[in-house]
Design a protein that fits this description.
binds zinc ion; elongated; 3 strands; three-stranded antiparallel beta sheet; mainly beta; single chain
Length: 54
């Protein structure tokens, strides 16, 4: 497996369905203490929501 270098927040993130690692952010929603990013797998189209603390 080839590993792609990404930013720290994206490290280890991969599609739950197909394992594809290229998950561009569709949009981000900012909450009180966290940011939710909705990503979409380029391979199978599955959407994945990630949460980050501010
Ligand atoms: Zn996928």
């Amino acid at each position: 497996m080839s590993s792609q270098k990404q930013t720290a927040n994206d490290e280890g993130l991969s599609c739950h369905t197909c394992g594809y690692r290229h998950l561009p952010v569709l949009y981000a929603r900012r909450g009180l203490r966290m940011i939710r990013r909705v990503r979409e797998c380029r391979h199978c189209g599955r959407r994945i929501t990630t949460r980050e603390r501010v």
